[in-house]
Amino acid sequence: MTDxxxxxxxxLPRLVRFEHExxxxxxxxxxxxxxxxLDSRGADGTPSHLPRASGLLFGRVDDLGITVRxxxxxxxxxxxxxxxxxxxxxxxxxRFGEVYRNPGRGFWSDEGAVLRAVQRQAAAGLEPMGxxxxxxxxxxxxxxxxxxxxxxxxxxxxxxxxxxxxxWPVNVIWxxxxxxxxxxxxxxxxxxxxxxxxxxxxxxxxxxxxxxxxVQSSH
Length: 219
Hints:
Layout: E1 15-18, H1 20-39, E2 54-62, E3 65-72, H2 82-96, H3 111-123, E4 127-136, H4 138-141, H5 157-166, E5 170-178, E6 184-192, E7 199-204, H6 207-213, E8 215-217
Parallel strand pairs: 1-3, 1-7, 4-5, 6-8
Antiparallel strand pairs: 2-3, 2-4, 5-6, 6-7
């Protein structure tokens, strides 16, 4: 990374700009997962598929801020890697709630795929900046016993835990929800680990994308 990128998180720029292509690619991925969730609804209206959209962000740092120029999607090993499943069972579920014993909940990137993505992007002159993942309005469409935690573009306690574990300078949450008119809407925010709680980043998404898809960028 550049000198700025290897500086302590508190010294890195707080402004994060998305180029159009990576923002659109993740939006389409998140929407696809959300629609798959809605399509899985049973007779009582409760979906069986938990939408899980997650990606790695790559870009550059300069004096003006962090620019996200690409996104990579890597396999999820949450329900297949024995070490990851053990961590959810012994550490994460007791700390953050019994819902995390559900192997369909959560996303854990395959380490080998992450390494290959970093190497591939380095060849193109881009550096790993962080991650992006989606939140659905599960508190409204999920099973009644899982609606206690309200989701949004803000980090959950589990998100804060993972953000601190990874130490990425950019952690974006993309909230997809059903709007009042029945269509889909989006609220997006960026975060980085802070000394006590996650600190909000100034996130800038392409204006044309925001206008076309009803995306609101927080902070």
